[in-house]
Write a structure and sequence with these properties.
Length: about 550
C-alpha cells in the first residue's frame, strides 16, 4: 500500500507531503484544484515521461517520492533479479532536473526508468477516464481467471517447470550451435591436430637443437681452439702439466725441512690432477668435434618445422604448441560426444513437456470452470451501479499444437458491451473510460479478497452516475477497501461519505503565486465539505444534516 507521497516542485505544488490510510481514501476539491496534479506526480514514479515546463519553479529540480508497504506482494523475485535491497517499506523516487535530465531510485539505489516502471506498476493501479487500463491487458485477464479458479499453487509449480524447460531449451540451442560449429570446423581441427601430433614435439627440444646447430656451425673454430688449448696444457714443450709436475717435485724435496711446504705441495698436486683431467676432456671433445653437414641439415629442417608451427599458431615456444594440441584434442573429443548430449537433453525436454502440458491442461480446465462465475458476478455488479444492460463474455482459446508459454496453453479475451442490442467486442473498442472504471471495480471486488492487489486509484469513477447508483458504487468500493488500499477522486457526496480518510485538495494564493495544497479533514471539517458537495458554498442546515446522516450511515 501507499503509505506516503512526497511531492516537491511539480505543477502548482511547491511542497506537499501526504500520508494515506490502508482502507478507502477519498480526495475531493474543486475542479482545477490539483487532484489530477497529484495523479500526475504519482505517474512520474510509475515511469511516465516528465517535462520541466510543468515545474513550479523552473530553476529547481522536481522530486517525487512514494513510500510503499510491500509485505505480501511477493516481490522478492523482482528485487533479486534486479540486484536490489528489499525493505518492508520500499521507497520509489524520481528526480527531474530543470534541463530535463531524470534519475530514478528504488531504496536509494539508482535504476533505469524501465525498472522503476516495472515495480511501480505492481504497486499502484491508476484508473482514470483517459488512462489505458490494465483491464484490457491479456496478463490481467488471465490473472482474474486464475485468482477465481484458485490456480495459485498449480501456477507456481507450472512456472517453475516452465523456467526449467526454458533453461534446458537454451542449453540445447547452445549445444546444437556449438555442435554445428564444431562439425563445420571438424576437418580443419583434425588437420591442425594431426599436423601437431605428427611433429612429435618435445617441450625442451628447441633449445637443445639450437645449441647443437650452433656447435655444428662453428665446428672448425671450436676444434682449432681446443687443439691450441690442449697443446698449452699438455702437449707442447713447457706445457702446463709438465711445469706443474716439475714444481711439485721441487717442493717434495723441501718437505723435510719445513712442514708447511707439504700442505702447499698437496694443493699443487690436486691442481695438477685437475688440469690433467681437463686436458683429457678437451682431447675427447676435440676428437669428437667434426662438422656433420647431414646432421646440420637435419636440425635445420626440424627447427624450420618448429618455427613454422609456432608462427602459424602465433606462439613463442613448444610448450604453447603442446597446449594448443591438447585443446584441439578436446575439441575433437567434444565433437564426438556432443550428439549424445543433444539427444539426452532432447529426451529430458520431451519428458518435461509432457508433464507441463498435463499441468497446463489442468490449469486450463479450472479457468474454464471459473469463467461463468466471473461473467455472472461482473454483470450483476454492473447492473447495481448503473449499467443494467452490460454483457461480459470471456473467450478462452487453448492451444492444441503442443505449444505453451509462461501462463500455460490459454489465451483469454474479455468481450464486452454496455448497451443492449450491441455486439460484444474487445474492451478498448467498445467501453468508455467511465465504463471501464466501473468494470474494473466490479472485477476487483471479486478478486480482492483472494489475492494481494496493488493500491488502486479511481479518478472520478462516479462520472455519469448519481443518487442511488453513486451510493452503490461507493458501497462496492467500501467493500473492496477491506482487502486493499483504495484511493478515489470524487465529486459526489454519496461517494465521499464512504471513505475512512478524507483529503481536501484546494488552491491558495500567496504573494501572487497560486499553490495547490491538500489536508486531511477532521470529522467536523468532513461534515462541512460533504455539505458543500450537497448544496454548494451556501451552506444550509439541511445540507449539514444530510451530510451528518450520510457519514452516520457510513459509520454504521
Amino acid at each position: 500500500m501507499l503509505n506516503r507521497l512526497y511531492i516537491k516542485n511539480y505543477a502548482l505544488i511547491d511542497s506537499l507531503d501526504i500520508s494515506f490510510d490502508s482502507g478507502l481514501n477519498i480526495l475531493t476539491g474543486e475542479t482545477g484544484a490539483g487532484k489530477s496534479i497529484i495523479l500526475g506526480a504519482l505517474g512520474l514514479i510509475l515511469g511516465q515521461r516528465a517535462e520541466s515546463k510543468y515545474f513550479f519553479n523552473q530553476q529547481k529540480k522536481c522530486i517525487i517520492e512514494g513510500f510503499f508497504k510491500i509485505e505480501g506482494y511477493q516481490l522478492d523475485y523482482f528485487f533479486a533479479e534486479n540486484d536490489l535491497d528489499i525493505e518492508p517499506e520500499t521507497v520509489l523516487r524520481r528526480e527531474i532536473a530543470s534541463d530535463g535530465r531524470s534519475r530514478a531510485f528504488i531504496n536509494d539505489t539508482p535504476v533505469n526508468l524501465a525498472t522503476l516502471k516495472q515495480l511501480g506498476e505492481q504497486l499502484i493501479d491508476i484508473h482514470s477516464q483517459h488512462a489505458t487500463l490494465a483491464i484490457g491487458n491479456q496478463n490481467f485477464q488471465l490473472l482474474v481467471a486464475d485468482v477465481v479458479a484458485e490456480n495459485e499453487t498449480l501456477l507456481k509449480g507450472y512456472k517453475s517447470k516452465f523456467r526449467d524447460i526454458r533453461k534446458k531449451q537454451a542449453e540445447l540451442k547452445t549445444l546444437i550451435e556449438n555442435s554445428d560449429r564444431l562439425k563445420a570446423d571438424l576437418d580443419y581441427f583434425q588437420f591442425q591436430f594431426d599436423e601437431l601430433e605428427q611433429a612429435q614435439l618435445l617441450e625442451d627440444e628447441q633449445e637443445k637443437l639450437e645449441n647443437e646447430l650452433n656447435a655444428l656451425t662453428h665446428a672448425e673454430e671450436i676444434k682449432t681452439n681446443l687443439i691450441y688449448a690442449l697443446q698449452l696444457i699438455a702437449e707442447q714443450e713447457g706445457n702446463a702439466i709438465a711445469i706443474l709436475k716439475d714444481a711439485s717435485n721441487k717442493l717434495q724435496v723441501l718437505e723435510q725441512y719445513q712442514p708447511e711446504i707439504e700442505e702447499l705441495n698437496n694443493r699443487l698436486k690436486s691442481t695438477w690432477i685437475e688440469i690433467k683431467d681437463i686436458s683429457s676432456e678437451i682431447g675427447h671433445l676435440e676428437q669428437s668435434t667434426t662438422f656433420n653437414e647431414e646432421r646440420a641439415l637435419e636440425i635445420n629442417d626440424r627447427l624450420a618445422l618448429i618455427y613454422n608451427l609456432q608462427k602459424k599458431h602465433r606462439v613463442q615456444n613448444n610448450s604453447e604448441l603442446l597446449t594448443i594440441q591438447k585443446e584441439l584434442a578436446q575439441k575433437l573429443q567434444n565433437a564426438l560426444f556432443t550428439d549424445e548430449d543433444i539427444e539426452q537433453l532432447q529426451q529430458q525436454i520431451s519428458v518435461e513437456k509432457t508433464e507441463i502440458l498435463k499441468l497446463a491442461s489442468e490449469i486450463s480446465e479450472r479457468r474454464r470452470q471459473a469463467i461463468p462465475q466471473i461473467e455472472n458476478h461482473v454483470v450483476d455488479v454492473l447492473a447495481e451501479i448503473g449499467m443494467p444492460n452490460s454483457q461480459l463474455k470471456i473467450e478462452q482459446h487453448s492451444k492444441s499444437d503442443g505449444s505453451f508459454d509462461s501462463d500455460g496453453i490459454d489465451s483469454i479475451k474479455f468481450m464486452f458491451t454496455a448497451n443492449k442490442g450491441h455486439q460484444l467486442n474487445e474492451l478498448n473498442k467498445v467501453a468508455s473510460g467511465g465504463e471501464l472504471s466501473r468494470l474494473m471495480l466490479s472485477i476487483k471486488s471479486l478478486i480482492a479478497a483472494k489475492t494481494s492487489l496493488p493500491t488502486i486509484i479511481f479518478d472520478e469513477i462516479d462520472t455519469g452516475v448519481s443518487g442511488e447508483v453513486a451510493h452503490k458504487v461507493g458501497t462496492i468500493m467500501e467493500k473492496l477497501a477491506k482487502n486493499m488500499q483504495v484511493i478515489t477522486i470524487t465529486h459526489l457526496p454519496q461517494m465521499a461519505s464512504k471513505g475512512e480518510s478524507h483529503f481536501y485538495v484546494y488552491k491558495e494564493v500567496d504573494n501572487d503565486l497560486t499553490y495547490s495544497k491538500i489536508k486531511k479533514l477532521t470529522a467536523e471539517e468532513r461534515v462541512i465539505e460533504i455539505a458543500k458537495m450537497l448544496s454548494g458554498d451556501s451552506l444550509k442546515d439541511s445540507a449539514i444534516s444530510n451530510a451528518r446522516e450520510l457519514l452516520k450511515n457510513q459509520a454504521l
